[in-house]
Design brief:
With about 150 residues, the chain is α+β, with helices and mostly antiparallel strands. The chain folds into 2 domains: about 5-25 and about 80-140, no CATH class; about 30-75, no CATH class. The chain is about 30% helix and about 25% strand. The protein has 4 helices and 8 strands. The chain has a 3-stranded antiparallel β-sheet. Strands 5-6-7 form a 3-stranded antiparallel β-sheet, covered by helices on one side. Strand 2 (about 30-35) and strand 3 form a beta hairpin. The two termini are about 30 Å apart.
């Protein structure tokens, strides 16, 4: 039986990509800032704060409450869970003679496992690869296969 050190619920593929990037590939994410309405994107927090001061005075902006605007830091990782080429680049980093990958498609679902770790099942190959790969790092990903996007 495999040892699971962490169970993590993800609701989006972006969250799953962050787990893969942080724990498996050690990718340095692209970092930027955006307003809570996702209307504007800024390269730095300082740029965002300065722009927000100016934005509030603009008459032709989308109809949102600009007085209560908040900024959030976004860490963007490569799309491991959506793009098979990107997912495979991650596989090439973690595969070893003792940690081989097994992939099969059965009844419209992809089944993937590494070494002797439990198989992951998902509607797409990249998604199943990511979930299975995280199990090699003792991270169990909890997600709803019908609603993850």
């Amino acid at each position: 039986m495999e040892k699971i050190s962490a169970r993590v619920r993800v609701n989006t593929m972006r969250e799953l990509d962050a787990l893969v990037g942080a724990h498996l590939t050690r990718e340095v994410p692209e970092v930027y800032w955006e307003d809570a309405h996702a209307v504007f994107r800024f390269e730095t927090e300082r740029e965002a704060l300065e722009a927000i001061k100016r934005i509030k005075a603009q008459p032709n902006l989308p109809k949102v409450n600009w007085e209560e605007i908040t900024l959030k830091e976004i860490k963007s990782y490569r799309p491991y869970s959506a793009d098979i080429t990107t997912a495979w680049s991650m596989v090439e980093k973690i595969i070893t003679p003792d940690n081989t990958i097994r992939i099969r498609r059965e009844r419209g679902m992809w089944h993937v496992s590494f070494g002797d770790h439990t198989e992951a099942v998902a509607r797409s190959a990249p998604l199943a690869i990511c979930v299975a790969a995280l199990r090699t790092a003792e991270i169990e990903v909890l997600f709803d296969p019908d609603s993850i996007h």
